[in-house]
## 1
Amino acid sequence: MEFPKIKPCLDTSENDLVEELYTPCLQWATQFDRGVGYFTTGWLECNVSGMSDFAARGGIMRLITSPIISNEDSDAIILANERDNSAYQLLEEALSKNVEALAVEMKKDVLNAFSWMLYDGIVELKFAVPRMKLKGDFHDKFGVFYNGEDALSFSGSINDSIHGYQNYESIKVFKTWTGTKEYVDADKERFERLWIGKDKNLKIYSIPQAIKEKIFKLRTSDRPYAYTAKPVNKWIHQDKAVECFLEKEHGILAMATGTGKTVTAIKIINKLFEEGKIKRVVITMYGNDLLDQWAKQMREKYKNKQIYYQYDKQKELSKFIIHPDNSILLISRDAGNLSKLLNLLDKAPGNYREDTLFIFDEVHGAGSNSFVENLTGRISPYRYRLGLSATPEREYDDDGNDFLRNEIGEIIFEFSLKDAIQKGILCEFDYIPLSYVLTEEEKQRKKKIIAAFNAKKESGEPYDETEMFTQLARVNKIAIDKIDTFETFIVDKSDLLEKSIIFVQERPYGEKLQDVLIKYTDKYHTYYADDEKSNLKDFSEGKIECLLTCKKISEGIDISSVTNIFLFASDRSKLVTTQRIGRALRLDKNNPHKRATVIDFILDDFGENDNNADQERAQWLGELSKTRRIEDEK
């Protein structure tokens, strides 16, 4: 299809923006991104011809706009607590008034068209609410039309409303095919940053499902456009992540457990090899289990490439250096190992920094002190650096987070647990919080920890408040009342021990728990050390019903039959919890109606010096458990 012929500058006095911009671009484009201060369905009334053609061809419009709400509502949303979801609830309440107004004020045929487009996913809508240094409205006005690799962007003063066309307004137009590609790219990058919520001064809200349903009910007749429903591609997020990385060339993909981080990385490897941009790949991660899984994937996918291993008993780094081209190296995530590799690459002939792809799986681990101390400035010179993690941020570690950003890159793509459940990639789950209390001995232990910390503080000695909270948290994690609470609960619900993983803090605590566990099932085994690896294999094959562990089998091991998770221990950071519950949220082809259960232990009488991590986790998981598949709600 030939390019739309659009003038570089248009204004409402001399030009008809509908006929000279929107209609030809909508008839050409397959995607339209629009950031605009105010959008009303009156815009559809003016652009019904172009949008009908756009919809019939399966086009997608992503729209970021200001919610039309009162200043009082806006202030309440900004001040609300994001963590307990009250801001989202306030937005939903405010938007309900908008829906009522739409039903009264808009022409039925236009409202019907808008409702159908929202229902069919042709229009994807998000709201921007300024915060922090921004005190007013989201008042920007720009847009990007896409067709394959080509794009046209525009920016100016006009809002998407009938009234907007009645003012004197003007816009500038940029095209990838006429020498103004850098302006188009800037608009594309800015929109994407806003869409994924990476501007700290704007809070981006997806349209609440309850509001969508209210708008769906405003449909009064059949679709006013030809439409053929496309097969739902649940995995399109992987392709978007690939596109994002290929454009940026470095950065972190924050993708929930079970959404295909490894598959996405393989797609990136394939693309870079096919285009001749890389000659080799270095993949690094922690733990033999995960390294073995990657090794198996690489052998299956790349029979025409040499695979080298630098972990466990396999020491093939020198072989990789001798024959580096068309090869893949799997190396344990160890600062010494990687420093040795980088030293060898620095001395080798050739431009290794331009044609090597580094992949850091579970990238949060690469922000450790040893990496910061030994590898600062060593990784960033390489052109292609890819980080993978469900939760890349390191809590309480600014130095580690800065290292990850500087050496590997910013988070460039996000696909959360909530996104994955809504898409039907992960299953829905029930959340059961069980209350426990501390014994007097445990309370005294915590008082001693606090007293020791305060003594250091008062004497002027160096102290680390994080270390105090870590020690207090450990007391909670090994609280003996959890075992009694567990037995009381499991008496009538022993079926939850089937296809379950029980996460404890440490082996001695797990041994105490076994005395109770054996009363209710004899089909359990432990997984504490590498010499029990066969138990993990038997569990994955269904020979064992229940696995008791304190190991991080949460990182990357695919056991899709797991249905129930018991969290006797979980960190304040969402990192460990996300990975652990992710074990149960994977779909199971042998159980198409799978619904998971997460059983958690929440301290009932936390003291003033506790950081209340249990309560915060309960709030978060409780809200997450309400997530439903969107396809089922339509």
Note: Residues 99 and 214 are 7 Å apart (CA to CA).
## 2
Amino acid sequence: MGNPLAALGLVSAAMVVLVAVVAFMVLPGPFLAGTAPVWIAPAGDAAQHAVGGWYFLADSWRMPLLMVPQLGVPGGSNIALTDSIPLAALVAKLLRGVFGTDYVYLGPWLFLCFLLQGPAAATVLYICGVRRVLPLLLGGLLMLGSPVLLARLGHAALCGQFLVLLALALHLDLTRRCRLAAFLLYVPLLAAALLTHVYLFAMVAALFGASLLDGLWTDRLAARTAIGLIGVVAVPLAGVLWACGYLGLGPIPIKPYGEWAFDLATPVLPSFSLLFAVDGMPLGLNFETLAWVGAGQAALLLVAAIAWRRDLAGVLARHSATVIVCTSLLVFAASYAVHVAGQVVLGIDPARVRAAVLGAADANGALLALRSGLDGGDMLRLVGLLILLGGLAAWGLGRAVVLGRWRALRVVGIVGAVLLLVGVLQPRALLVGVSTFQASARLVWVPLYLLALLAIVGVCRRFAPRVATTMLAAALLVQAIDTWPLWRSLLEHAHSRGRLAEHDGGLAGAIAAAEDVRVIPTYLCAHARPPELRAGLIARISDVQVLAARANRPIDSVRSARMTAADGPALVTKCEAALREVVGDMARPGRLTIFSTDTPEAVGLAGCREAPGWVYCLAPQK
């Protein structure tokens, strides 16, 4: 094709049409449109996301934009904390005159994510010099079958991985041509990622940092210019944070960062794989550690590594800044405990850190509790981890000094000094920011995607066009076969009838007739109940929240991504006080009080009715 850019446009359009046609052929139309039972009666994380969306669509426009006063009364909630994909929610709210306030935009969002994944991947390949139509098409479709995407169907926000791919394309373009105007494209990318999910924002922000570092490393950016670019990007992002209410979220609990950390063995341990007969995560590994790339991508990675083995050191040296940032992401993903096949080989067991964080009132208490619980083996593994991290830091610093990369060192030093100052002046703010990444293993997606895409580029550059195209086609076929368990899960999910039963004992009608709803226990207080009762109780509370959201009734229970169960005794005391307050105010006109049947106060209540697992009491209206 004469115009290479036209090839990218043709391939992108072809992939969008192909994915759309296949989706409409194999998936129910209501699932794609957001009207299927699985969306109307969602369960698990999807229920959390839909509930926030329903309250947001039914509410009037207000500032901050994302606050909904009816969810989690009396304080209300920010739907960024319910992972309700604010970017999609804002669009849906603008169009609610067409779709209504009970619309579930999660289905169309998922559809959009799958439509854009292939073209975004093809853009990365185009930037890296792959200009022929078939390799672009096959490479894009290969990335569409990435397990880290397919395994995220229950968490729609995290399916927006096309944003990471677009940021990768921008970063790789800037490594070739360091243009100041191109850096401004990070502003909409970062804003879109921020309004999708905080993990995606962190990944795009890391790539923005990699682009700056590369410009400084290659002396194409002055230190002053880099600092200026940080400011230029930060100002509009601060405006988005303010307008959406991120800056006024109130006291946020510290969570145990790295509880679900990256396991170094997972990239080579097949997961959800048909070819390796692994229907799930192997060796009891946690789902969050999923880093298997699929048999097709793995085969290409192996072929590319062999074909480029003599040139690999030179390629890495030319892209030192990218290597440093990707290594930093891997370190952050692994957190404070290096896992290999489920075993902690360096650092501290996350279970021990969780107990220390959740069992202490503040950061100092957590550190003291953690230190007092360490034995000799823990100390030995911790020293080993510190030696490893020190070695990596010394390698990066030493390479910068030897090569005379003083601009990069200057800017990194300034940024580090600012973070240190924040840590001294506002230690809790810094700890809250770090603790946001409880599932730190997700941050490995950036180097994972980068390696898979560069493997495609390497095959296209090293082999003759016909041979490379054949290899990509074979890899795509192998990838499709290997990831069949995940595709099957998508089909099952699309045809699911949802969580809520058709007969709820009249609870839906009572909620619709009420002015407001109180639940005993709330979602948070369910964690104060015995562990063996929590799973079923939390699922029933989620059902109540779905019913209240569909009726747009104020409710005191909210499931939030930032919510965490603090130490047991304090939580029990807090929930007992909340119970007394709710019981004392049951007679308020229009108040619906819903008790779990295992609550002693639910026994012998006059004028109340029963539903499966609940006793509910509706005070008459005035």
Note: DSSP finds 28 helices and eight strands in the chain.
## 3
Amino acid sequence: MTLTAAGVLARRGFHDQAAITTFLEPRLSHLSPPTRMKGRAEASSRIVRAIQKREPICVFGDYDADGITSAAIVSDILRALGGDVSVVLADRFSGGYGLSDEALTRVMETGASLLITCDCGSSDHERLWRATRSGLDTIVIDHHRVPDEPLPVLAFLNPHRPECEFEYKGLASCGLALSLCAAVRAELGSTLDVRQWLDLVALGTIADVAPLDGDNRPLVRVGLAELARRARPGIRALLQIVRHGRGALSAEDVAFRLAPRINAPGRLGSPTAALELLLAKSDGDAIRLAGELDAMCERRKLLDRAMLDEALSMLADPALAAMPAIVLGAQGWHQGVVGIVAGRLAARFGKPTAVIGFDGAFGRGSARGPNGFRLYDALARSREALAGFGGHQAAAGVHVEFAKFERFRELFSESCASMGAPAGGRASDLTADAQLEAEDDPVNVLADLERFEPCGQANPAPKIALLRARVLSLRNLRAGLVRFEVATGGRTIPCFGFDLNTSGVRSGSEVSILGSFRRDTYRGTNSVEMRVLEVHPSGV
């Protein structure tokens, strides 16, 4: 029997026809009723009043892709609706994450009477109190963990609030931002079509590794189509830089080619260039800014490769390698790339991981964990050794005193072990959804399985097994990239993967492969390649 989407869906537990149709054909009409979102109506009414009275509005965004796209969405739409809007972004190296003291000072300097925070604010009580006492009305748009203490703000949009009855809890801040702007548009009676900003919703949602199920599925599906239209000069220039063809974009294209370039400025310094690119109105400005972002991304790659090599050298210590969690840090490690290195170590070793860059007595770091592990809870149990922390269960940031670094490593490891953290390794969740048979044409299979898009967190790309394929060529390239070609069923399939264990794999040998198909845009829209997760000599 040939490999089909229906077969994969059945293996994943989809049996109800209505659920299958909704999954394969997600539409904006499937979105949860937005009126049940706590704080949305109050926020919309305050923004409408500010627009009508020409009050100065300040939009404040975090320095990552979700914060930047959220700030771009809110500022661009409110300006289109007649608002007087300025934008301020957080700076990793001047104040750090969220609405810091330095950031609030910059906000106050704009002279705004209304502040809208994007992708931050849920735990910024002290600065929000300062803003309120200064007469600044504040609306918080965020999706991070909600603390017990109420926020001193006019409106707080976060689906994780216990009292919020909005059905879907997985929206990233950019999705929340668009929903709020849609409410403002409706209240003003405007005919502005906010769907044209769904390209930024797709970009921010995928970059933030938000779940690609529920409401996010239609939002990102339509957003990917909007990205492929290249209507926005900044997106058009960025796709030229990464040499993407004129065809459709997948969530993987966004995650590995667009999002890193949007995140790069905020990792190395000010994130402003990324915001300017997304809001650029001319091709000339967009091409210049896209080039700047690409150069920053290349510099970032050099930094994280060097840091990853150092981290792997540290893990050669058997005592560190045997711990239930990975906690590494060093003076001088770049704080803008610790999250990337933490994510790679967590993926490679299958353990909760924290990586910290120190600058003297204090350091800032990022923590990542295996799928399903409650990372935030593990950090909460380790708070005794932390100067601060924040985030959610899949990713978090930490502030650590150098003198307490070893204590943090001890507490975090103990917490992870007591919470049942995986013992390590990547094989546990790498189960094939289906096996490619000799009669299956990879081009037809991919066309069928592309209906699973967008694929990512909570909706992984279908994993396909190739058994007893013959290796035609094998090349180990830089940064852990491996490229090879295999012959199976009378066809040649190009393959690639990162950090693969290729021991025993050589030209002429037979291998079994686990991976996912993707369109090879370099070879043409009808060409297929395989992103490999595991490769083993046949019989192993």
Note: The chain has a mean pLDDT of 92.
